[in-house]
Write a structure and sequence with these properties.
Elements lengths: L6 E3 L8 E2 L18 E3 L4 E4 L6 E3 L7 E3 L1 E4 L8 E11 L8 E3 L6 E3 H11 L7 E13 L2 E15 L8 E5 L15 E2 L6 E7 L6 E5 H7 L8 E2 L10 E3 L18 E7 L4 E6 L11 E5 L8 E2 L1 E2 L6 E8 L3 E7 L2 E8 L6 E2 L6 E6 L4 E3 L2 E8 L4 E6 L3
Parallel strand pairs: 5-12, 27-29
Antiparallel strand pairs: 1-3, 2-12, 4-7, 6-10, 8-9, 8-11, 11-12, 13-16, 14-15, 15-19, 16-17, 18-20, 19-20, 21-22, 21-25, 23-24, 24-30, 25-26, 25-29, 26-28, 28-31, 30-31
């Protein structure tokens, strides 16, 4: 472990320092002072702990806080105190002028909540190791005058917890008016990213949108836990692109569509941005019914899905399969328009790792294991979803 000497910048013949109030909390960011005569306070040592040099996985962290440093205080000049010990951290590939405070106790303890907040301030919720440069600061006080001092440098590598589950849902004026039905409007994940999601329809009302994690409905809704909720970072945005609210800004406003047209709404939970992508075809085919047919009903009947958006292009049904079945989607109880996976060469097998796939017209059968599923389908994009459900 590295031993860090502390050089306190004091003027022997009187202090010429920046004033602060009694709270001693005006010095959140490093301040540049003119070079003054220095004295050395012997015995001050800031020592990083072993944990500070290792990856900090918040998903496996069992305690509420972790010790990142130990601090030994030496003998101070008469009338001088050292207070407001804190870490300031910023992404390692960015400039220090965007540093944010990380609350730390004098014994070097930093809470799991503070570390999560640090990651979410600069990044989204993807469970990826993020590297930060951090400095340990304090203020030396004599009366109401203060001098910023640096106690040491750190490199922190923090990995957020895994998303509670991969399912995100959209809710607003273009979909169900009942919040309890929001689970019926699942978003389609990007095959190249676990934090980018899409939803395509005609936004026929005001188009107001919020995005929710399914755990919100199961746990957070009744206790007003907004940490699983994404809305706009602006009051009433109507542009094609914008920013979403961060974790600590859960009570954010709805996102409004630019116009009453067909769009694919895209949200990136890592970049914390959204985008409205206008469809070239503003007159897609419409159907009276979308249904499931397959081995489970001997290819002789249809299980109708329910339209969950006002434009009737996104469909939902809860389906129980007593045995593994191959099945397909079709329109209006007829084979003239049907969807399956890929081409006719083979079947797509639904499993826990692959729960959403695009289907194509006249594609191959979809092989689904026995179980109960929330089934979703978009007849514009062909996106199909089979999400395991409680039976």
């Amino acid at each position: 472990m590295k031993k860090l000497s502390l050089y306190l910048m004091l003027v022997i013949a009187g202090w010429s320092l920046t004033a602060c109030d009694e709270s001693h909390n005006d010095y959140a960011q490093p301040v540049v002072y003119p070079q003054e005569e220095a004295i050395t306070i012997e015995g001050f040592e800031a020592t990083p702990t072993a944990a500070a040099s290792e990856d900090i996985d918040l998903g496996t962290m069992t305690e509420d806080a972790i010790q990142l440093f130990t601090l030994k205080q030496g003998t101070l000049p008469e009338g001088v105190t050292v207070e407001n010990i804190r870490l300031e951290a910023w992404p390692a590939d960015k400039d220090q002028n965007i540093a944010t405070n990380v609350v730390a106790s004098e014994d070097g303890m930093v809470t799991k909540e503070e570390l999560a907040k640090l990651v979410y301030t600069f990044y989204g919720k993807k469970s990826t190791v993020r590297t930060f440069t951090a400095k340990l600061f304090a203020n030396a006080f004599k009366g109401k005058e203060a001098q910023l001092i640096t106690l040491g440098d750190f490199t922190l590598r923090i990995k957020p917890e895994e998303l509670e589950n991969p399912y995100y849902y959209i809710y607003g004026g273009a979909t169900s008016s009942k919040s309890s039905d929001a689970y019926k409007t699942v978003m389609t994940p990007d095959p190249e990213s676990d934090v980018v999601f899409y939803y395509t329809t005609k936004w026929v009302s005001s188009g107001d949108v919020k995005v929710w994690n399914s755990k919100y409905w199961q746990e957070g809704y009744l206790i007003n836990d907004f940490t699983k909720l994404y809305g706009s970072g602006e009051e009433k945005p109507t542009s094609y692109k914008g920013t979403t609210g961060k974790l600590e800004q859960g009570r954010n406003s709805y996102i409004f569509s630019p116009a009453k047209k067909f769009y694919t709404f895209k949200i990136d939970l890592e970049a914390l941005t959204y985008e409205w992508i206008e469809l070239e075809n503003q007159t897609p085919d419409t159907y009276t019914n979308i249904s499931l047919i397959g081995d489970f009903n001997e290819w002789g009947g249809d299980v109708d899905m329910v339209a969950v958006d006002k434009a009737k292009h996104n469909w939902y049904v809860k389906l129980t399969l007593d045995a593994e079945s191959e099945l397909k989607f079709r329109a209006d109880h007829d084979w003239a328009v049907n969807w399956g996976f890929g081409d006719s060469a083979g079947a797509w097998t639904v499993n826990d790792d692959i729960w959403a796939k695009p289907c194509v017209l006249n594609g191959g059968n979809i092989k689904v294991p026995a179980g109960t599923y929330h089934v979703y389908f978009c007849d514009i994009t062909g996106a199909a979803h089979f999400v395991a459900a409680e039976e």
